[in-house]
Amino acid sequence: MILIGSRALALRAPQAMTRKPVDFDWVCTKQEFDIWMETESHKVSPKKVYELPEFHKWIVEGSTNCEFEINKPGSSTEMLMDIVEGDSESIETPFGLVPTLDMLFTIKDSHKYKKFNTNPKMFWKTLVDWHIMRRLGAEVRPEYREFLKLREKETYNYAHPKLNVTKDNFFKDDNIQYVWDHDDIHKSVARGEHPAYTYYLKDGEQVLTDKAKFFALPQEVRLNGVIEEAAVLAIERSLVPHTGVWTPEYAWKFALAKVCSSITSGYFRQFAFEHVPEVMKLYPANYWEKFQQDCADGKVKLFTGSKY
Questions:
Q1: Which 3 state secondary structure label does DSSP give 198?
Q2: Alpha-carbon torsion, ordered 40, 42, 46, 50, to 10 deg
C-alpha cells in the first residue's frame, strides 16, 4: 500500500504542515484493501463503508476517515504504484510506502486546477500545500511527467471557455444574466489607465490574448490582469445578481479561486495560480464601491449583448 495525502506529507516533510492531518489516503490493490478491512479497519471503528466505482475508490468512514484509490490497469494509479514501489527513496512505514516529496508534489500538481462549485475549501487547501512544497524545493521530476500527464487527463473532464471567438459568442450560453456591459466593468475595476487585459489582447481579437505580449509586460500589469479578472467575475456573478449575500472581499476571493482553476486556462491560469500570494496582498478593497459609483455616474452602461 502507498500512503499519500497529508499523512504522507507529515511523515516525509513535517515542516510543510500547516494543519493536523485528519484522514488517511492510500493507493493500493483491491486485495490490499480487502486485507486492510479484515485486519486493520477495527482501529477506525467503521460506521460506513462504500464504493465510488466511477473514481475506483473505497471510502471507510469512522473515527478517522480513510480513502482507498484502487489500482486500475492502464491508469495513473498503476503508474504511481510502479514508480513508488521501484523507487529506493520511498520510505517504508507501518502505514505503507511513502513517496518522495517530489512525487507528493506531483500528485498535488495534478489536481491543482480541479473545478469546484460552491465550496472553494479544497482549492485553497491544495493551493497552500502546493506553494509550501514548492518553497521546500519540490518539483515535478522528468521521470514523473508521463504520470502527471495521465493523472491530469483523468482529473480534468470539463471544458474551458473558447477565447478565439467574438465577445457575443464568448458570453453566449453561459447561463449568466448579464446586467452591465462587461468591458465597462473592466474599465471600472482597472488599476491602471486602461484594463490590464487590453495590453495583451492578440492583434485583431476581442477575447483571445497573446502569451508573448503578456510575459513581455511588467509584473505589475500581469498581476493587475489577475486582480481585475477576479473583480469583474465577482461583480458579474456574485455581487450584482446576489447583492448582499457575500461581502465584496469574499466574492473577490471566491472569484480568484475560479480564475485559478476552471474559469481560465493555459498560461494565464498557471500564472494566476503561481502568483496567488502576491495577488492576495493587492486585494482591491474599494472595487465594489467604485463600480457602484461608476454606475451612478453613467460610466458603466447596461449590457446590450445579442441575447437581449
A1: helix
A2: 30
Q: CA–CA separation, 19 vs 29, rounded Å?
A: 29
Looking at residue 36, its amino acid is W
Other beta carbons within 10 angstroms of residue 246's beta carbon come to: 16
How far apart are the C-alpha atoms of 142 and 187, rounded to whole Å? 43
In the chain the domains, ranked by start, together with CATH numbers, are: 2-155 (3.30.460), 167-296 (no CATH)
Q: Which residues of the chain have pLDDT under 70?
A: 158-175, 305-308
pLDDT tens column, 200-216: 999 877 778 999 999 99
Angle at 223 between CA 231 and CA 115, to 5 degrees: 60
Phi-psi region of 173 (alpha: psi -120 to 50; beta: other; left: phi over 0): left
Residue 47 cell numbers, joined: 460506521
Q: Residue 175 has what pLDDT?
A: 60
Are residues 148 and 109 in contact, defined by beta-carbon separation less than 8 angstroms?
Answer: yes
pLDDT digits (tens, 9 = 90+) for 153-196: 999 976 655 544 444 444 444 567 788 999 999 999 999 999 99
Cα 267 from Cα 271, distance rounded (Å): 6
Give the number of other Cβ atoms within 10 Å of residue 69's Cβ. 22
